[in-house]
Amino acid sequence: MDFHGQHIAVTGGSSGIGLVTAQLLASRGARVSLIARRKELLDEAVAGIGERAAGFAADVGEKDQLDAALDAAAAQFGPIHGLFANAGLTGGFTPAVAFDPAVFEQTIRVNLISVFWAIQKVLPAMIEAKNGVILVTGSMASKRGMAMNPAYVSSKHGVLGLTRAIAVEMAPLGVRANCIIPGFIKTEALDRIPPEQKGKIEQRIPMRHMGICEELAEVAAFLLSDAASHVTGQDWAVDGGVLESIEV
Ligand SMILES: NC(=O)c1ccc[n+]([C@@H]2O[C@H](COP(=O)([O-])OP(=O)(O)OC[C@H]3O[C@@H](n4cnc5c(N)ncnc54)[C@H](OP(=O)(O)O)[C@@H]3O)[C@@H](O)[C@H]2O)c1
Known about the structure:
This protein is an alpha/beta fold. The chain has a single domain (7-238), classed as NAD(P)-binding Rossmann-like Domain (Rossmann fold, 3-Layer(aba) Sandwich). It is built from eight helices and nine strands. It has helices at 16-27, 39-49, 63-77, 101-129, 150-170, 188-191, 195-203, 213-224, and strands at 7-11, 31-36, 53-57, 82-85, 132-137, 175-182, 185-186, 211-212, 235-238. Strands 3-2-1-4-5-6-9 form a seven-stranded parallel sheet, with helices on both faces. The longest helix has 29 residues, at 101-129. The protein is globular, with a radius of gyration of 17 Å. The model has no long low-confidence stretch (mean pLDDT 96). Residues 11-12, 14-18, 36-38, 41, 59-61, 86-89, 110, 137, 139, 182, 184-185, 187-190 line the site of NADP nicotinamide-adenine-dinucleotide phosphate.
């Protein structure tokens, strides 16, 4: 997988899956634009990657900030050839009856509507080039229900639908779109789970352990690369077998 000459924008590039994927893409030659809110983490990430990386601080839930970040990225590294729309939040766990409508709206805005905004922003250049690739981060909640998490589940079902819609519409125009589905991948959020609960989760994963960001990043890089040139509209789980199992 060679990404020389390609510019890939990664939202949620300040930590976890987005950061590790950006590092991998850059190590294979891509210029990467990292977009997230925490500027100090973006600065650290860019210092670690080197001249192939640039950071643009933005809240993706604010359209003006997202548009400005994507414009600045294109000004720095040229037209965006790949978009990894990965930023997301969990939305909190509360019974549906008591779920705060404002939290529901914000979760849909950050996890789903911002992905649409980003796609809409990068598509014209991709269509003009007759070449582009979009990868969206879904979740097992893109394909299954989960108690007490209605906003997140709705948003992640939404991004899978959005991916399929874009894939079908853009296929004749040379633009691919796919959705990557992380299972339990060790990141900051999962680090906060108490050890005994982590143990229980691992027992329900057919492989009996959580994944790491590098394992997710390899599949993300494949889907973003020309090696996947005939792959579009797909969802690909990196989950140790959870979704295909009746153990959970
Ligand atoms: N890890 C897993 O097991 C797992 C499972 C299912 C799905 N996912 C999905 O994977 C994606 C990445 O999460 P992660 O696991 O890597 O966790 P993470 O380390 O917490 O990363 C989340 C990223 O999203 C960014 N972000 C959140 N809200 C944002 C906003 N309003 N504007 C801009 N950036 C925002 C964060 O950056 P800032 O805080 O700096 O803004 C951070 O870079 C998410 O979409 C998540 O739903 C992860």
